[in-house]
């Protein structure tokens, strides 16, 4: 019996465990939260381990695990409000006590893939969970309509219909491909270096020079958002006034350029920058002291 158990454990470690990274990213795309994704991943592997001995191999291990993970995420999303970014809520006005702003914000996630971009995650969160799942299975992960139908325990026509509705929503709201730039592009790196350097030197003019006129600033979890360089400038100037106390280390977060941030020597959070060819279009600041360690 011990030998059988050893083979089961070895098989699970060899075939299932190596898929943890891509499954975590899938759970994040479904749930828009690093912590929720980790919880879903843990539940996925718990269910998979319990069923491993009876796994017959009629589908690949990868397909089988995605079926479990997607079901876990759908269960987790059921009955919960979707997550959002502050700039996408309440039409970018002054923060009002008792407003309808959600308390469930989209969180950051490590990785350099375009399908982790905050703008894409925000669009996914605007979809019903079932549409979200179908879109990810078909357009991100490359499963066929038949495979997706089997994964979701539904019909092929239902998958095709759901996918059409999801694609229409994404086409309306997702970023234009020409606006998506690579974090390693030299022009992008210069803009990011200028942003970081402005904080290091207390240079407000330098910071404002790299912002687009329609730049957006948002703070999580404060739920604060401002649109337009003129509206962002006083807030950024106040932050830059802490010259010498900010320490920013470049990092790629959610497939975009950004930085992990320390303030007065202590972990502060992370910044994600939406950089376009003509400047920085969006600054999303996540105040979470665990992020510098987790994103290192």
From TrEMBL:
Enzyme Commission number(s): 2.7.7.6
Start and end residues of each RNA polymerase sigma factor 70 region 4 type domain: 118-169
Occurrences of domain RNA polymerase sigma-70 region (ranges): 21-80
GO terms assigned for molecular function: DNA binding; DNA-directed RNA polymerase activity; sigma factor activity
Record field: transmembrane: none
GO biological process, one term: DNA-templated transcription initiation
UniProt entry tagged with the keyword Transferase: yes
Sorted UniProt keywords: Nucleotidyltransferase, Sigma factor, Transcription, Transcription regulation, Transferase
UniProt subunit comment: Interacts transiently with the RNA polymerase catalytic core formed by RpoA, RpoB, RpoC and RpoZ (2 alpha, 1 beta, 1 beta' and 1 omega subunit) to form the RNA polymerase holoenzyme that can initiate transcription.
Family assignment from sequence similarity: Belongs to the sigma-70 factor family. ECF subfamily.
NCBIfam families: PRK08241.1 (NF006089), sigma70-ECF (TIGR02937)
Protein name, entry field: RNA polymerase subunit sigma-70
Organism: Microbacterium ulmi
């Amino acid at each position: 019996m011990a030998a059988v158990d050893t083979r089961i454990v070895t098989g699970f470690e060899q075939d299932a465990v190596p898929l943890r990274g891509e499954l975590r990213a899938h759970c994040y795309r479904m749930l828009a939260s690093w912590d929720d994704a980790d919880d879903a991943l843990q539940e996925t592997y718990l269910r998979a381990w319990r069923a491993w001995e009876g796994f017959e191999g009629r589908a690949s291990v990868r397909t089988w695990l995605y079926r479990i993970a997607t079901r876990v995420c759908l269960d987790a999303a059921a009955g919960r409000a979707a997550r959002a970014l502050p700039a996408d809520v309440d039409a970018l006005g002054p923060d009002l006590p008792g407003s309808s702003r959600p308390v469930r914000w989209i969180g950051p996630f490590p990785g350099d893939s375009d399908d982790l971009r905050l703008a894409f995650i925000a669009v996914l969160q605007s979809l019903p969970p079932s549409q979200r799942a179908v879109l990810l299975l078909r357009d991100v992960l490359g499963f066929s309509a038949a495979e997706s139908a089997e994964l979701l325990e539904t019909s092929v026509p239902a998958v095709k219909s759901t996918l059409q509705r999801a694609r229409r929503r994404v086409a309306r709201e997702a970023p234009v491909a020409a606006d998506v730039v690579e974090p390693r592009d030299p022009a992008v790196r210069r803009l990011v270096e200028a942003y970081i350097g402005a904080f290091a030197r207390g240079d407000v003019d330098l910071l404002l020079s790299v912002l687009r006129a329609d730049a957006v600033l948002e703070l999580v979890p404060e739920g604060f958002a401002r649109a337009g360089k003129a509206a962002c400038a006083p807030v950024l100037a106040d932050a830059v006034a802490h010259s010498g106390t900010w320490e920013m280390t470049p990092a790629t977060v959610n497939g975009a350029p950004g930085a992990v941030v320390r303030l007065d020597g202590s972990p502060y959070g992370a910044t994600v920058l939406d950089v376009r060819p003509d400047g920085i279009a969006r600054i999303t600041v996540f105040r979470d002291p665990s992020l510098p360690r987790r994103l290192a």
